[in-house]
Model the fold of this input.
Amino acid sequence: EMQLVESGGGDVQPGGSLRLSCHASGFSFERYGMNWVRQAPGKGLEWVSHISASSTTTRYTGSVKGRFAISRDNAANTLYLEMNSLTPEDTAVYYCQVDLGSSSDPDVRQGQGTRVTVSS
Done:
């Protein structure tokens, strides 16, 4: 059974840091690009960052560029998101996401999420 399990969320003060993890199982993790997405309270899902299967390409949404870093360890089937200089606007549930399908027939899966709350 395919699973994505996020962890590492919590409460943090503005300016603080957190490192999120996503452990993958049940599919060939090393073959797929991975995404982090987030959902702030009362808002829709927002794409945050992408990393290619071999880590050669990373992309970020504008609001997190220079503050967040995505990485992966294919040997450990784990995706990471290092988050620095956090602001209250980063408060959200963070999900890791993978598309196991194709561009013509997507099959997007995500985990249960990990909550990040940035507040003083």
